[in-house]
Automatic annotation (TrEMBL), chains A, B:
Family: Belongs to the GST superfamily.
PROSITE patterns, sorted: GST_CTER (PS50405), GST_NTER (PS50404)
GO molecular function, one term: transferase activity
Top-rank taxon: Eukaryota
Keyword Lipid metabolism: no
Protein name (Swiss-Prot/TrEMBL): Rho-class glutathione S-transferase
Organism whose genome encodes this protein: Laternula elliptica (Freshwater crab)
Length: 223, 223
């Protein structure tokens, strides 16, 4: 178990929930300790993790006596415990927009990742009608986000970086790594992606194994 | 579109996300207007809803100029906009527990509902090995919640009703309706269920069609 009184996070490379937590820690300039676990060695099922998180999942997070393991719960806890660099605007109406975009990102997992997973699992027996249906859904989903970014002209919920970007960006990075070519069909998402890739907290928290291994290929060919 | 300055919610009977929003409105004693839509008539895809929510889903929610449609975002907005009856404790450490349980409920959908859905979809061709696997998962999941309730001796995150109960109770009610017999294996969840069924806000927000139609049967036979 972590023998520190600083916030401590166990995380695995490439997991969007872990990435969210790292991003909040970095954006808020919180002094923390960490341990990277290997999914392939099943270290998330180690006794060290299970003692803190009976589900055997990462992120697993402690801060003194506080143990929180759901990534969204960790993000909310950090926002409230370390308010110096807020990731929410103060106005209730604008906060509502931030919450809306934060929780709306789960649709990207469903609607875009399903297309990727269908292609991965059915390499030799793709049903072209089903594939087109899933691709259309992915396009509709990305269309929503393209519009949101066009409206703000900046980050995903407002002109400023907020908690909504913490939730949204890892999904965008994931779909780019899966082979999405955003440039032509989704110019605002593409612009956002490039802007974020220059952000120091993103540079610092990019999944380390992405730099070491090739992307899985053009699974998200959306043309 | 809603022609009211009061909070206005479009909702459908039996949808846990809709139920969460109604529960928050009722618990916080907020004066609101509502419109019940019929899923079978596809009213969630009506122009009236699509104008406010391009995803064509309920809940769809407005409060003056504010439009929020993700159920969790609506709950957080209501908590902040109408703080008179708080659904979160003030202490950051205890709030962390509330957040943890709120977001942990998504595991019930995955681990318990998958068992139900497998049985529904494969009535005539059930693979007993796969069925046992899914049943074991459901038991592990319910075991977590049984423990949590044993620890608090009251509601799901603390001794008091909190936002975590808003997220958790609709899932419990759903699994009971699907046929789960909690009494013997999960006495603390069973006790919690019965306590909540007497709560005025629950009585008031129970899915109306549940009173009119039979439950789908013993799909969650966990013995």
């Amino acid at each position: 178990m972590a023998t520190t009184s600083k916030p401590f996070v166990y995380w695995g490379s490439g997991s969007p929930p872990c990435w969210k937590v790292l991003l909040v820690l970095q954006e808020k300039k919180i002094d923390y300790d960490e341990k990277i676990i290997s999914f392939s060695k099943k270290e998330h099922k180690s006794e060290e993790i299970l003692e803190l998180n009976p589900r055997g999942q990462v992120p697993t997070f402690t801060d003194g006596d506080v143990v929180v393991n759901e990534s969204t719960a960790i993000c909310m806890y950090l926002e409230e415990k370390y308010p110096k660099v807020p990731l929410f605007p103060s106005d209730t109406t604008i906060r509502a927009k931030v919450y809306q975009r934060m929780f709306e990102t789960s649709n990207i997992s469903t609607n875009v990742m399903e297309f990727v997973q269908y292609k991965m699992k059915n390499k030799d027996s793709i049903d072209q009608v089903l594939l087109k249906e899933k691709k259309d859904k992915a396009h509709v989903e990305l269309g929503h986000w393209e519009n949101y970014l066009k409206q703000t002209g900046g980050f995903v919920a407002t002109k400023e970086f907020t908690m909504a970007d913490v939730f949204f960006f890892p999904m965008v990075a994931l779909i780019v790594r899966q082979g999405a070519n955003l440039k032509d069909s989704y110019p605002n998402i593409f612009k956002y992606y490039n802007m974020m890739m220059d952000r120091p907290t993103i540079v610092k928290t990019m999944p380390p194994h992405w730099a070491e291994s090739d992307s899985p290929g053009n699974l998200l060919d959306l043309c």
